[in-house]
Amino acid sequence: AATKTSNVGSYNIIPNGGLDNNYTFNYVNGILTIDKANSTVVVSDGLFYYDGTSKEANAIAYGVGGAILSPVTKIYSPGGEFAPVNIGTYTVTASFAGNANYNPSSSTASATITIACPPAPKDVTSFETAKGGGSSIPTVTRPLGTQSGDLLIVGLTYEKGNGSAITPQLIGHS
Q1: What is the mean pLDDT of residues 39-54?
Q2: Cα(146)–Cα(50) distance, rounded to whole angstroms?
């Protein structure tokens, strides 16, 4: 006999009741068939900052009563099944292949994830001036709040003179 937690399948129905002096019962056996339930897939938009690692979209498949189903397959465009790493905007769709108790389903709408440049540190402006007849070596001190891998743009201007060579040096944090 089926219970309220039975899986997909067919179950015999066997009537079970007591006899009463005022009624006549006619018992008939039957079959209860439980079909697969529908699933729903939801995929969410997301904003990520580039750090050299892949960025997964959030996608979840739901079943009866909010049950979470797995696995969920995500497809990125461009990129296929591989989560993107590089800066850009990607469209994502997701699907659940189904299982013994649930029908397959796909997200009803695609989502967009964006991988953007990380925000620049707030205090990165530094001006230094070296003057003199070639006796001063201009240096640029790495601005506070920056780290290895950050982009630092430096402009050097030499006026007049000859035989000057520019040799970059990075001197700690300011």
Answers
A1: 94
A2: 15
- Print the SS3 string covering 67-112: CEECCEEEEEECCECCCCCCCEEEEEEEEECCCCCECCEECCCCEE
For all residues of the chain together, what is the average pLDDT?
A: 79
In this prediction, residue 174 carries a pLDDT of 46
In the 3-class helix/strand/coil scheme, how is the chain assigned residue by residue? CCCCCCCCEEEEECCCCCCCCCCCCCCCCEEEEECCECCEEEEECEEEECCCCCCCCEEEEECHHHCEECCEEEEEECCECCCCCCCEEEEEEEEECCCCCECCEECCCCEEEEEECCCCCCCCCCCCCCCCCCCCCCCEEECCCCCCCCCCCCCCCCCCCCCCCCCCCEEEEC
Q: What is the share, in percent, of the chain residues with pLDDT greater than 70?
A: 64
pTM of the model: 0.58
